[in-house]
Amino acid sequence: MKTLYLKNTENDIKKAAGIIKKGGLVAFPTETVYGLGGDATDERSAGKIYAAKGRPSDNPLIIHICKAGDAEKYAVTNEIYYKLTKAFCPGPLTIILPKKDIIPKAVTGGLETVAVRIPSHPVARAFIEACGVAIAAPSANVSGSPSPTEAAHVKADLDGRIDAVIDGGKCDIGLESTIVKIKDGAAVILRPGAVTEEMLSKVVPVGRDKSLFDKPDDSVRPEAPGMKYRHYAPKIPVTLLKGPHGLVIGFMAEKLKEDEKTGIICLSDDKDKIYGKNVSYLPNDPLGQANALFSLLRSYDESDAPRVYCVTPPRTGIGFAVYNRLTKASGFNTEYVGITIPVIGLTGQSGSGKSTIAEIFAERGAYVADCDAIYHGMLYKNSPMTEAIEKRFPFAVTDGALDRKALSDAVFSDKEKLKELNFITHGLILDEVRDRLIKAERDGYKFAVVDASQLFEAGYDAECTAVVGVCADEKTRVKRITERDGISGEKAKARLSGQHNEDFFRVYCDCVIENDKGVEQLYGKVDEIINKYVYGKKI
Ligand code: TXA
Ligand code: MG
To answer: What's the rounded Cα separation, in Å, for the pair 393 and 416?
Structure first.
């Protein structure tokens, strides 16, 4: 078959719609990635899509419509669907709903549900409108390879296998849509994307599907069947490197010395530290990373690199989606650089009882680095920390000694200043933590716990084997803080108000411990975590 290359003109879009009406396939741009479209009500089109992509037919397709109300024809909607579409659509969000009979099971991989998406890209919208029917469209790549973010990628994968491609330039976002299913009044994330957990949680309660971080278990059918395959992957093996960034870069440099053809993906900030024929750079900011990732992964298919090592980006905001695609691209293949013992990050709100849990980990043999204590221990007269603080906040240091009250009065009422202070302190604290962990490993510890309320803000999650969040209800936390620090309930509440809510920890941590029911039950939970993340046992 000869593939037709079309432009974003009224005439070409009409032509494309004509192809769809005759049961053909057209690839088209969306704000996320290019889709491979066919008539969503025609099972023969679905069959052609699976064949062209080489995709297993149990992996369902997303149907694309123009307005929220259009879903009524194809699916059984509900209140949450309308809340979500009102807040985020048109846009990069896909919602799973019970399907109506008009959608053949060939489209939904045999499921009784259908995934519905309302793209915002003007070309996608004009095309769907012209077709007059919902368009079933997976990403327009060969199954398993990185999704296409420009027409040239579609051509590379599907030329001669589909009827036409509409060229709409580069996709804005570059990663596929966020997928949610609706369960018990909450939106449960099956695939993270540009509509982030924080954004969703402002509109409806949010949950996270277990499959997001775990290596897929062959015996269990995942909620979004597509998530079980090695995905987004170049043809050569990809390894994600976790560990202190400096050491990761050092490790990469070693690998380059051994073989100059080694593929390396690091950050723009590393440009002066590492270079080579197959070295590429992700932008430092998460949005830029989302944008560049697939194109960059794809570029390794044309290189002579035998394998690729890649840095681990931070996991918050859209960074979570970038991280998710990278874990899939690597087939969950991660190497730790620096120390080899597992490191469990421990974080949570004030008063959640993190320290109690850290103590239990210590009883079970963990080396525990308490970042709060480390910070306070670094504030002595004329210390490097005190000097660094003085440079930015001169009024808070007199004769080399820090006036902690003056400093906290200045920063705790001013978010920007607090950010600046954190920027100064986090780096120094983490360097100290890293030194201590290296020593702990030498001393024979089998694993370590890093207790840090600002773990995510400091970007330390990227260095952890797993992150555990500790949560407790607000009443319990307020009571604990008033008793511990001797302050009023009002003040305790004010202190808590600026902190992340429980949803944040549920979304970003690998697991959450509820700590409001007494100490006894905590031991079992800690042991479960140790078994899973330190000894790799299934739980
Ligand atoms: O951004 C996007 O969503 C792009 C553009 C083209 O819209 N499309 C896309 O489609 O990424 P695809 O087929 O590459 O990924 C669809 C994912 C798969 O993981 C599939 O398993 C899941 O959605 N999915 C589809 N229908 C589902 C359903 N009824 N229940 C659960 N998961 C479903
Ligand atoms: Mg895909």
So the answer is: 13
CB neighbours of residue 399 within 10 Å: 6
pLDDT (tens digit, 9 = 90+) per residue, 245-277? 888 999 999 999 999 999 999 999 999 999 999
Q: Is the CB of 61 under 6 A from ligand 1?
A: yes
| Mutation to probe ligand 1, out of 116, 139, 166 (largest number of atoms < 8 A from CB) | 139
Q: Is 96 in the pocket of ligand 1 (CB under 6 A)?
A: yes
33 lines ligand 1 (CB under 6 A): yes
Helical (H) or strand (E) element with 93: strand 93-98
Residue nearest to atom 7 of ligand 1 (CA): 35
4-208, which class in CATH?
A: alpha beta
pLDDT at 37: 98
Tokens, residue 129: 């409108």
Q: Is the CB of 113 under 6 A from ligand 1?
A: yes
Cα 115 to averaged position of ligand 1 atoms, centre (Å): 7
Tokens of 269: 């900030």
pLDDT score, position 217: 58
Distance CA(329)–CA(333), nearest Å, equals 9
CATH of 343-533, one of 3.40.50.300, 2.40.50.180, 3.20.20.70, 1.10.3210.10: 3.40.50.300
CA 25 to chain centre: 31
Atom of ligand 1 nearest to the CA of 191: 19
Which ligand has the minimum distance to the alpha carbon of residue 157? 2
How many Å lie between the centroid of ligand 2 and the Cα of residue 36?
Answer: 10
Total count of residues recorded for the chain: 539
Contact 104, 167 (CB under 8 A): no
Which residue's CA is the closest to the ligand 1 atom numbered 12?
Answer: 138
**pLDDT tens, 342-372?**
999 999 988 999 999 999 999 999 999 999 9
Point out the ligand 1 atom lying closest to the alpha carbon of residue 139: 14
Residues, Cβ < 5 Å to ion ligand 2: 139
Considering only the top CATH level, what class is 238-336?
alpha beta
- CA pair distance 418, 159, nearest whole angstrom: 53
* Measured distance CA(48)–CA(191) in Å, rounded: 25
* Whole-number pLDDT of residue 116: 98
Nearest CA, atom 22, ligand 1: 224
Instruction: Give the model's confidence band at 518: pLDDT under 50 very low, under 70 low, under 90 confident, else very high.
Output: confident
Atom of ligand 1 nearest to the CA of 193: 1
Strand duo 367-370 + 448-451: pairing: parallel
CA-closest residue to ligand 1 atom 30 = 224
* Fold equal for 4-208 and 238-336: no
Question: What's the rounded Cα separation, in Å, for the pair 100 and 395?
Answer: 67
In the chain, domain spans: 4-208, 238-336, 343-533
Does pTM surpass 0.85? no
| Residue for token pair 């002595």 | 380
Nearest bound ligand to the CA of residue 60: 1
**Shortest-distance Cα residue to atom 17 of ligand 1:** 226
CB-facing half-sphere around the CA of 230: CA atoms within 13 A = 11
> Which ranges in 161-212 belong to alpha helices (H)?
197-201
